[in-house]
Every structure is written in structure tokens, then in C-alpha cells.
Design goal:
There is one protein chain. With 289 residues, the protein is an alpha+beta fold. The protein is built from seven helices and five strands. The strands form two sheets. Strands 2-4-3 form a three-stranded antiparallel sheet. It has a two-stranded parallel ribbon with strand order 1-5. Helix 2 (50-63) packs across helix 3, helix 2 (50-63) packs across helix 5 (116-127) and helix 3 (69-85) runs parallel beside helix 5 (116-127).
Length: 289
């Protein structure tokens, strides 16, 4: 009887040890949880200069009808959306100066001094990653109140006197390359001039006036050549004898006149149209914006 009890205890002990071992192998104790590290996604870097910042402010000012911060931020968001979409020039000035995209005169008209403080604050916010929350992926806008018969204009916001819209198809998908979200964009300030193709540089006025050569204070017909205004030999020769003497005027050969080549095309400048006479903004193309 005692032997049976002892055997039973031994069997129970063996089963208990086996279950414990099985439990150890199938349900291991959780190891100490490692500290979670948040991985920041890589950002796409765009360079900008002081001139690019000025171009951004000009677009925000003239396209928002000199309105307020809300209008400035909305237009600035469109500029950044175009810059990061890959479908427009790769610099802020290139985007703003692109022909027939923004308001005529945006690169040449005067910005009123009283607006510069608020403009500078809004432009700095845009360059640091701020965006107008309602504009979303919009890269197009027109004056609020206008109507167009296109069914791909998906309106998202009204600000600064403009209606902002995305181009979307019947399936709701964007018809343009989507811009990068602000958290994936890094703006890197580079001192110096904006690196632009020549066609865009021609549209941007220089901040430093170009000096013009001063005219000769005492030009005369007898001492100056009609072509290059250089002193003649008689003008440069010293007077050897101070006594009065007869002076014969030097004989100069007439300079040949410069005639244009008959086959040469002469460009006649065309005056820029008046900004205030434009009835429809250049940002609205015939195909729906």
C-alpha cells in the first residue's frame, strides 16, 4: 500500500515537472521591452535665396489682392505645392515668374512698405513648413466669383479674394502630380542669387541699379569723334610756342555712317500691358485652370 502511494506521488511529481518544463518552453517570459525609437522619414531639401523669398512675398501680395495673412498663406501654399510637385520649375522664383501662371506684373510692381512686415512673417512661416490648412493639394486658383464649365475643378478653399481648387477626375483622383506634404520638405537657405534658367532671370528685376557712364563734361565738335567720343590728336597735342600764331583747324575725315544690314531684323519693343486693365488672371488657362 505504501509502495503504491509512493509510486503515485512519484508519478504526480514527474507529471508536474513535465508540465512545468513544457510551460517554460512554450510560454517564455517576455523579455524586457526595448525602448521604442521613432524613425524620422528622410526629407526632400529645396534651396532658396533672398531673391526666392522676395519672389514668394510678391506672389502672396499681388495674387491675394493685398488682403491679409489668410490670403497670403493660401497663395504661398500654392507656390510650395507647385515647387514640390515636380511638374513646375525647381525654384520659388522659377515657379512665380513662369509665364502666364501668376498675375501680370507680379515680378515688377511695387510692394507697399506698410505690407512688408506682415508679408515677411507669412513668408517665413511658409519656408519653415507652415501651410494653409484648407488649401490641401491645390495648385490652382482664380478670382472668387468666376464660373467655368469644367468638371475637374474640385474647390477646397476661398481666401484673399481667390477660389482655390484641385484638378480631379470623375474617380476623385488627382490629375496632377501630388505635392509633397510639408513634413517631407526641408527648405535650405543659401546666400547669394537664385540659380535660375536665363528665361526666368530676365523677368526678375535686379535689386541693385546698373550704373550708367557719365557724359564728358565738355564735349565739342572739334575735339570729340562722333563715334566713340575719343579725343582727337589736335586735342591731345601740347602747345610749344605761347606766342600768338595762326592755328589751322585739323582736317578730319568724315566717319562712315553705320547702316543696318538689309537682311537684319530690327526688334521694336512692345510696351507691357497695363496691370489694372487685366480682367482675368493669368493663372486660369483655357483648359480649366
Amino acid at each position: 500500500m505504501r509502495a503504491e502511494i509512493s509510486f503515485g506521488k512519484s508519478l504526480i511529481g514527474i507529471l508536474f515537472v513535465g508540465l512545468a518544463a513544457a510551460g517554460c518552453t512554450t510560454t517564455p517570459k517576455p523579455a524586457a521591452t526595448a525602448a521604442k525609437t521613432k524613425v524620422q522619414p528622410a526629407k526632400i531639401t529645396f534651396n532658396y535665396t533672398n531673391k526666392d523669398r522676395d519672389c514668394l512675398q510678391r506672389a502672396m501680395y499681388f495674387e491675394s489682392q493685398h488682403s491679409d495673412e489668410d490670403g497670403y498663406m493660401a497663395v504661398g501654399t500654392v507656390v510650395m505645392n507647385r515647387l514640390t510637385s515636380g511638374a513646375y520649375p525647381p525654384s520659388i522664383c522659377g515657379v512665380v515668374a513662369q509665364e502666364k501662371q501668376f498675375a501680370p506684373g507680379v515680378m515688377t510692381r511695387e510692394v507697399k512698405p506698410q505690407a512688408e512686415t506682415e508679408l515677411a512673417t507669412a513668408a517665413d512661416a511658409i519656408l519653415k513648413g507652415a501651410r494653409h490648412p484648407a488649401v490641401k493639394d491645390a495648385m490652382f486658383f482664380h478670382t472668387d466669383g468666376l464660373k467655368f464649365p469644367y468638371n475637374n475643378m474640385h474647390y477646397v478653399a476661398v481666401a484673399g479674394g481667390n477660389a482655390f481648387y484641385e484638378k480631379r477626375g470623375a474617380d476623385g483622383m488627382l490629375q496632377t502630380p501630388p505635392p509633397l506634404p510639408a513634413y517631407e520638405v526641408a527648405m535650405n537657405y543659401v546666400p547669394g542669387e537664385s540659380i535660375l534658367p536665363p528665361q526666368f532671370e530676365a523677368l526678375i528685376p535686379s535689386a541693385v541699379p546698373v550704373p550708367l557712364p557719365a557724359p564728358d563734361p565738355m564735349p565739342t565738335a572739334s575735339t570729340m569723334s562722333p563715334i566713340n567720343a575719343a579725343p582727337t590728336a589736335a586735342h591731345m597735342a601740347p602747345i610749344a610756342n605761347p606766342m600768338p600764331m595762326q592755328i589751322t583747324a585739323p582736317v578730319t575725315e568724315p566717319e562712315p555712317s553705320i547702316e543696318p544690314d538689309p537682311g537684319m531684323r530690327i526688334a521694336i519693343p512692345i510696351p507691357r500691358p497695363a496691370y489694372d486693365s487685366v480682367m482675368l488672371r493669368g493663372s486660369v488657362a483655357a483648359n480649366g485652370g
